[in-house]
Amino acid sequence: MSALLQQVISGLSTGGIYANIALALVLIYQATGVVNFAQGEMAMFSTYLAWTMINAGWPYWLAFFTTMVIAFVGGVVIERVIIRPVENAPVLTIVMVTIGLLTIFNSVAGWIYTYTVKPFPSPFSSAPIKLGPVTVSMQEVGVAGVSVATLILMYFFFQHTKVGLAMRAVVENPTSSRLVGVKVSQMLALGWGLAALVGAVAGMMVAPLVFLEPNMMSGILIYAFASATLGGFNSPGGAVVGGLLMGVLENLVGTYITFIGTELKLTVALAVILLTLLVKPSGLFGRAAVTRV
Amino acid sequence: MVPLLEARNLEAYYGWSKVLHGLDLTVEKGKVTVVLGANGAGKTTLLRAISGLIRTTGEIRFDGVRIDGKAPEDIVRLGIAHVPEGRGTFPNLTVLENLRLGAYTRKDKQEVRRDLDRIYTYFPVLKQKSNSPAGLLSGGEQQMLAIARGLMLRPRLLMLDEPSLGLAPVVVADLFRIVRAINEDDGVTVLLVEQDAVGALEVSQYAYLLETGHIVSSGPADELRQNDSIRKSYLGY
Fold first, then answer.
1. DSSP secondary structure string, A43-71?
2. Cα–Cα distances in Å, from A213 out to A42, A70, A173, A207, A216?
3. A30-34, A265-269, B108-112, B190-194: which range is least confident on average?
4. Model pLDDT for residues B120-157, shown as the tens digit of each residue
5. Which residues pair with B218 in a beta bridge?
6. Per CATH, is B1-79+190-237 categorized as 3.40.50.300?
7. Chain A residue closest to B155 (CA)?
């Protein structure tokens, strides 16, 4: 029983990371109707920037927050320079552009930093903490804490600020938003910036576990896709719940279904995507898309 | 006196097809002006042209200043509120959030709060339902919300696109009464676009008749009401 609890709790910690990347995917999907396949690689690249700063002797948290700022600006610039020109192109074109971005970030990271796996420091110690029958590490608690804090800040931003409200309005009805004076294209750029920022946080949190290398996010991105699909691609809250569920599910399946182990972990995520699309395509919390004809 | 809104030789296009053919139209300050016309006459296009949502040629002046070619988000900032066809509310946002969006461009927070209270006196039902999603309101309530959202701008010109569409006659009468009150009590100039000629002519001082992108007739509202051919084709008696 306590082993089960143990797995659930450490699953919630990785789940927080999935939740963040899933939220980043949903933010861009809602605003533009397109899945950003480069989300993971953008996070990976940000993490490399943090690594560079830390290696240059910067204190961890200074590097952490500087990276967040750079990621945000980078996200805005990507939207302005690369996405904007294809904004009105068919969905497939934009998808190809984001896949192109994925490849570019991946190769550039490999070119600059090589493909050698690098350790990435964690701000949290691995000291164990006893919570009743279960033992968790400070590391797990810290990662979960940072993820949850990011999600709460996002929630606050979207629910309680004027700009957050405007961004939600743009998602619902771009024309009406323009008619009340919202600068829609600025909001889209802001959405990319926020998604890049949230992704960067997740990248820096997960890097100590998976180690830093250009492909470090590929598995995580697939789990994040599964999270967003499970929760509902048009529901930010659903994506978060989906992320936590996926984290727990990953751990439980890895522990109790022995033939899956670590080798078939990705298959679990893909199976979740497939099952969700078969049973409830809009996800647990998503709304089915209604198109008036 | 400079008219509040003036269009000269206004032409508008959807893609390559011309929808408005050289319109001349004037909206006087403090009045309610109505543009009547059947489906497809170009009424909606006219409003979309004024608020900058579509490509136009010709001149549009607001308070003497050219606004044609400007972006919608800049035109709003001049004080033109456009309540679009089909209401254009944000169904998943609450009523209050919809109203707050109406005042998005305003910086005078205190005044916004006061305007919100005033608007609640015009539309008490919106106050009762301020925390429910706009999508759950009835058709009439949604139209009220759309108009209220326009008023939250504290507009100098309020443009209403077929507020009567799909509503029961009792509700429509109610709406027109509120439009008149807004015009008389708050001095908001209104440009109304309508198919329901009977109700619209009653609240308006000046009227235009639009047919397939041309203005075919215009004059003071009560004169148009007396005009035989208009009575037959638009008023049905």
1. HHHHHHHHHHHHHTT--HHHHHHHHHHHH
2. 13, 20, 40, 9, 5
3. A30-34
4. 998 999 999 999 999 999 988 999 999 999 999 999 99
5. B208
6. yes
7. A180
List CB contacts (< 8 A) between B104 and chain A: 162, 166, 180-182
Q: Tell me the C-alpha distance between A103 and A97, whole Å.
A: 10
Q: Are A183 and B92 inside 8 Å of each other by CB?
A: no
Pick the residue of A88, A162, A180 with the most B CBs within 10 A to test the interface with B by mutation: A180
The 10s digit of each residue's pLDDT in B23-61 is: 999 999 999 999 998 888 889 999 999 999 998 999 999
Domain boundaries along the sequence of chain B:
1-79+190-237
Better-scored residue on pLDDT, B86 or B209: B209
For residues B126 and B135, is the Cβ–Cβ distance under 8 A? no
pLDDT at B184 over 60: yes
Residue-range domain boundaries for chain A = 2-279
Q: For residue B111, what are its two tokens?
A: 């005044």
Query: Of all residues in chain A, what percent carry a pLDDT higher than 70?
Result: 97
> Does B54 contact chain A (CB < 8 Å)?
no
Residue A45's closest CA among A12, A22, A78, A14? Answer: A78
Question: What CATH code would you report for A2-279?
Answer: 1.10.3470
Identity at A280, one-letter amino acid code? K
Contact A262, A18 (CB under 8 A): no
Contact B183, B32 (CB under 8 A): yes
Residue of A162, A173, A175 lying closest to B53 (CB–CB): A175
